[in-house]
């Protein structure tokens, strides 16, 4: 299960995602739809921690994967992405 609580994502001064809340249960299918530039790819990249090395990137809120914070200090990013 993925539980997203109050997720906001910024690149420098530009806030791309603002206060996203979503729960995705095991086996549930989810479609992310929106116009170009609405943050769809940024949301997916945030779930996979693909923007970690971009300078000026800020993530606020919580993303839990099976109850574990994916931005916690003990998370092995390579294992998370699998």
Strand order of the largest sheet: 2-1-3-4
Overall shape: it is globular
Category from helices, strands and their pairing:
alpha+beta
Mean pLDDT: 95
Largest sheet: 4 strands, antiparallel
The number of helical runs is: 2
> How do the helices and strands follow one another from N- to C-terminus?
EEHEEH
Low-confidence stretches: none
Helix content: 10-25%
Number of strands: 4
C-alpha-based Rg, rounded: 13 Å
Describe the structure.
With about 80 residues, the protein is an alpha+beta fold. Helices cover about 15% and strands about 40% of the residues. It has two helices and four strands, in the order ββαββα. It has helices spanning about 40-45, 75-80, and strands at about 1-10, 15-25, 55-65, 70. A four-stranded antiparallel β-sheet has the order 2-1-3-4, covered by helices on one side. The longest helix is centred in the middle third of the chain and has 8 residues, at about 40-45.
For the structure shown, list the relevant keywords:
82 residues, four-stranded antiparallel beta sheet, globular, 16% helix, 39% strand
What's the topology here?
Blueprint: E1 2-11, E2 14-24, H1 40-47, E3 57-65, E4 68-69, H2 77-81
Antiparallel strand pairs: 1-2, 1-3, 3-4
């Amino acid at each position: 299960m993925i539980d997203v609580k109050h997720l906001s994502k910024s690149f420098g001064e530009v806030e791309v995602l603002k206060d996203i809340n979503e729960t995705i249960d095991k086996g549930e299918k989810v479609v992310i739809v929106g116009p170009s530039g609405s943050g769809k790819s940024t949301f997916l990249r945030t779930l996979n921690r693909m923007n970690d090395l971009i300078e000026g990137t800020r993530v606020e809120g919580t993303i839990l994967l099976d109850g574990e914070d994916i931005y916690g200090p003990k998370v092995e990013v390579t294992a998370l992405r699998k």
